[in-house]
Amino acid sequence: MARDRDRGGDRDSRDNALVDFVVKIKRSACVVKGGRRFSFNALVVVGDKRGKVSYGYGKANEVPPSVEKAIKEGEANVNRSKKVSLRGNTIPHRVIGKFGASKVIMVPAGPGTGVKAGPGVREVLQAAGVTNILTKVHGSTNPMNLVKATINGLNQLRTREEVAALRGVAL
């Protein structure tokens, strides 16, 4: 097993080239008669760097099992998720993703710009294979809501050909 997972390390090539990034690990405590009992929650983003991306959420009494559970859930969700429409290594148009009180604005950028994004949003975009993009977050900065808002925005993307086909016009 890879030990650099919490730093966003790549998975083995035998797993269909899926990459996973640990976004957040939270500790929660349950007060019992003898003291406190701690448990851990892990939020992980999984993608294939070719347009498919999803997230997983795992809970356990230790950090490594919670991360493993989250990765397993994320890998299962990646297979069910739809492929994001990308234009080269950026997005085709400006889009706003919303979830809860979080709003993520994503703007396409030219080559060499890089991923200008905060934590949570950056991991989703890297897992999807986007390398040049500008983002801005408004509202809540809850990592779970940011991940869901970013995925929501990516699912709204359409290429010129898809829009032309939907409208029934020729380019």
Can you describe this structure?
The chain is of the alpha+beta class and 171 residues long. It folds into two domains: 19-79, Double Stranded RNA Binding Domain; 95-163, 2-Layer Sandwich (Ribosomal Protein S5, domain 2), CATH 3.30.230.10. It contains four helices and seven strands. It has helices at 63-80, 121-128, 143-155, 160-167; strands at residues 19-32, 35-47, 53-60, 95-99, 102-108, 115-116, 133-139. The protein has a four-stranded mixed β-sheet. The chain has a three-stranded antiparallel β-sheet with strand order 1-2-3. A hairpin with a 2-residue loop joins strand 1 and strand 2. Helix 2 packs parallel to helix 3 (143-155). Keywords: Ribonucleoprotein, Ribosomal protein, RNA-binding, rRNA-binding. Belongs to the universal ribosomal protein uS5 family. With S4 and S12 plays an important role in translational accuracy. Located at the back of the 30S subunit body where it stabilizes the conformation of the head with respect to the body. Pfam families: Ribosomal_S5, Ribosomal_S5_C.
Write the layout of secondary structure elements.
Layout: E1 19-32, E2 35-47, E3 53-60, H1 63-80, E4 95-99, E5 102-108, E6 115-116, H2 121-128, E7 133-139, H3 143-155, H4 160-167
Parallel strand pairs: 6-7
Antiparallel strand pairs: 1-2, 2-3, 4-5, 5-7
What structural keywords apply?
2 domains, Ribosomal Protein S5, domain 2, Ribosomal_Su5_D2-typ_SF, single chain, Double Stranded RNA Binding Domain, 171 residues
The CATH topology of the largest domain is what? Answer: Ribosomal Protein S5, domain 2
Kindly state the mean pLDDT as a whole number? 89
Point out poorly predicted stretches: 1-6
Integer tally of domains? 2
Supply the CATH class of the largest domain. Alpha Beta
CATH architecture term of the largest domain = 2-Layer Sandwich
